[in-house]
Structure formats: structure tokens, C-alpha cells
Amino acid sequence: MATYDDLKKRAKGAFDSIADASAEAYKVAEEKTRILARKTKLRASIVNDKATIRRLSVELGTKYYSKYKDDESSEFGPLCNEITEAYEKIAEKECEIAELKAAAYVKSNNSEKCGSEAECTDECESAAECETENTPENKTDCCPECNKEINLFDQNDNM
User: Fold this and answer.
1) What pTM was computed for the model?
2) 104 and 38 co-located in one domain
3) 86 & 133 share domain
4) 3-state secondary structure of 133
5) Considering 49, 67, 85, which residue would you say is the last residue of a domain?
6) Residue-wise pLDDT tens for the chain (159 aa)?
């Protein structure tokens, strides 16, 4: 039969080996965590750098388009023409939206004319000629009946 000292030695040996295994597991986990944290930080930095490249590429393209959109002879002339055509299509669609909005405005007042004689500001002929961007803060149009200014991005509009 095993004596108390033998049992004590076996228990101490088992605890020592468990402690050694735990310490080793801790070191491995610590190293893996350090590597994972560094990789995550590098990936985040790469995402930020790619976002910077995209933003600057868009800015560069916008400036190039603004400067050379009328130069048919450049190698990018066809692309500039496509962009100009897209701006014109946008302007046509925005005009249609304004007409629909104005018609709904007139109809909601239960009359053919809404009675107000407010002046509205002139809109440019096409979106390609616009210097300002149409945003909810500055995009307005006018009632075709009375020229009263109508906000195209009305809170009640489900667009």
C-alpha cells in the first residue's frame, strides 16, 4: 500500500505537470493573441488606406472631368461624354420628380391654382451645368401654377 509520502509526491508531480502545461498554454495563447491583434491592426490600417485611395481617386476623377469634359480629343473624351449623359439623365428624372411633386401639391390644395405668387429661383438647364449638389438641404422646385417654392425632399415624401 502506498504511503502518505508516496501519495504526496504523486500529487505534487501531477500538480507540477498541470501547472507547467497551463503556463505553456498561457504562453501560446498570449503569442497567438499578440499576433492576431497585430494582424487586425494592420488590416484596419489597410482598409483606411484603401478608403483614402478611393476618396482621392473620386476627387481626381471629378477634377479631371470638370477640367476636360469638353475636350473630345482626349483619350478620356468618351468617358467624359458618358458622365455628361448620365448627369443629363439625372436632371431629366429630377425634373419629372419635381413635376409629380408639384402636381401633387396643386392637387392637395383642391384647386387648379394654389393662389400664392411667390417667386422661385431659376434652376439650371441640366445637372451637368450645376455647380451645387442637389441635397435635401438645398433641393427645391416651384409649383408650375404659381411658382411657389416646394421642397422636393418633404418629410412626408416616402423617397
Assistant:
1) 0.47
2) no
3) yes
4) coil
5) 67
6) 568 778 788 888 888 888 888 989 999 999 999 999 999 999 999 999 999 999 999 999 999 999 888 888 888 889 999 999 999 999 999 999 988 888 887 777 765 554 443 333 344 443 333 333 444 444 555 655 565 665 555 545 544
Identify whether the C-beta of residue 68 lies closer than 8 Å to the C-beta of residue 79.
no
Which run of H or of E encompasses 94? helix 77-108
Domain count, the chain: 2
Rounded (5°) CA angle 98-89-149: 20
Question: First vs last Cα of the chain: how many Å apart?
Answer: 87
Give the range of the structural domain holding residue 37, as residue numbers without chain letter.
24-67
- Residues 53, 115 within the same domain: no
